[in-house]
Design brief:
About 20% of the residues lie in helices and about 30% in strands. The protein is of the alpha/beta class and about 290 residues long. The strands form three sheets. The chain has a seven-stranded antiparallel sheet.
């Protein structure tokens, strides 16, 4: 049974903000959040300072947490600069104050029995998989990782993966490191070799769609942490909805931030993300199902 906790809002203090290749590794002292975190959950951070016009928070998967230390519990995230909000975060220095809410969302589900597991990460989407790998190894699961990116400089955590995983496969779109191609180039053979019944994935939506398809073809169940844009992070604004088929067979538009971000890969209607598919519960002409 997965234990979940109510999120907290804290005024965190930046402990460090380091450049790691193409990405930024931000560590924030956030007591209470660190202790509540489970692999797959995320935090939402206010950006721009007290007088900013940027009202919407930025959401990030949690890379690592430390529940104790000299300064208290810490939360670590990895991000790329993609706009004004992340540019502001990249400029933070030690001692700066950052408003943080977390942990948010539903975590990955862990296997009941020790089984081989394959973890697939795209770019800095690999970051939240390391905490998951720790939990899986604690349960006696063999961990195999697949890291993919457009080019070598966009990979994250390769050395850490090699230190902590039973095996590591690498793919890059341009062939600058590892196998030339996408993660699905190496995934089928890895699933066959390991016999892994479960695949965990985090990264771009196109990658998740492809990983979910390969897993289903090979008889494995996938859990995908989606990257839909989350404006509020707490389920109010409805900007991060996507179509997901429920246990009852009906498709509903669900919120990535509160119903996810982790979903079964075979339940997401990947080809129709960004639309309201015909027959979706609550859509015009869909009938009375709720």
């Amino acid at each position: 049974m997965t234990v979940t906790y109510d999120p907290l809002q804290v005024s965190g203090r930046v402990l460090s903000n380091d450049r790691v290749g193409a990405y930024h590794h931000l560590t924030v002292v956030a007591p209470g959040i660190a202790e509540r975190t489970r692999p797959g959950t995320f935090v939402a951070m206010a950006v721009g300072g007290e007088h900013t016009g940027m009202l919407l928070r930025r959401s990030f998967s949690i890379y690592r947490t430390r529940s104790s230390g000299v300064y208290g519990g810490t939360v670590e995230v990895v991000f790329a600069v993609a706009g004004k909000g992340t540019e502001w975060l990249a400029g933070l220095r030690g001692g700066d104050i950052l408003d943080v809410i977390g942990p948010l969302g539903r975590p990955f589900t862990l296997p009941r029995q020790p089984v081989p597991c394959v973890l697939v990460g795209g770019g800095y989407g690999t970051a939240p998989l390391f905490g998951l790998a720790d939990r899986l190894r604690e349960r006696g699961c063999a961990v195999h990782m697949v890291l993919g990116a457009a080019t070598e400089t966009r990979l994250f955590g390769l050395l850490e993966a090699r230190r902590t995983s039973q095996s590591v496969e690498v793919s890059t779109d341009d062939g600058s490191l590892g196998v030339r191609g996408q993660v699905t180039t190496v995934l089928p053979a890895l699933l066959q070799r390991t016999g892994a019944p479960v695949v965990y994935a985090c990264g771009p939506m196109a990658m998740l769609r492809a990983v979910a398809a390969v897993a289903e073809e090979r008889g494995a169940r996938s859990q995908c942490a989606v990257e839909e844009a989350m404006a509020c992070g707490v389920g109010v604004c409805m900007t991060c909805v996507l179509p997901v088929r429920g246990d009852d067979g009906h498709v509903r538009m669900v919120r990535s931030c509160t119903d996810g971000p982790v979903f079964r890969g075979d339940r997401v209607l990947w080809d129709e993300v960004g639309t309201v598919p015909a027959g979706t519960v609550g859509a015009p002409g869909a009938g009375g199902q709720r």
